Amino acid sequence: MAYISLPEDLPGIRGLMNYRPETAQPLNQLVDVLLQKPSSLGKGERELIASYVSSLNKCKYCSNTHGAVAKHHLGDGEIVEQVKANNIDTASVSSKVKALLNIAGKVQRSGRSVTEKDIEKARKEGATDKELHDTVLIAASFCMFNRYVDGLGTSAPDDPEVYDQIGAYRAENGYQAPNNEIK
Prior knowledge:
Layout: H1 12-19, H2 21-35, H3 43-56, H4 60-74, H5 77-84, H6 95-109, H7 116-124, H8 129-151, H9 160-173
């Protein structure tokens, strides 16, 4: 049960967005820019970073939701499960994405954990400054989102089908589409 009065039929951040629409709008704009707008990193890769950081933070709702969105973009749920299980080295993603996931994991612990060596390794694998920037911002943002969701004790469904439905909807419609259209 959430620590504040939230609609029971809107789990995770969906209930919080419903509770404070005026804060939901800029948060959804940020997520839409980071995860959905055109970028040299694919939508699935960016969602994978969000899911990975959320799994490191043990945020069930965000990890499962963004994992499901990543699955719909990538067409492969196994990659998502490998990354969420912290098996980055054997995951079926590019060396560049592996290097960026490493950086995201370090940001999750502390921004100061990222080293020049980490950045150079990612650059060697082809990461651009914008990709480095966006990886760090996605990781930092999801640390905030995870703390927001879990800090207010929101609910997280156990049924994987719920996350799959949310993932399909967000993959198709982005994050500025209304929450109430997701069943």
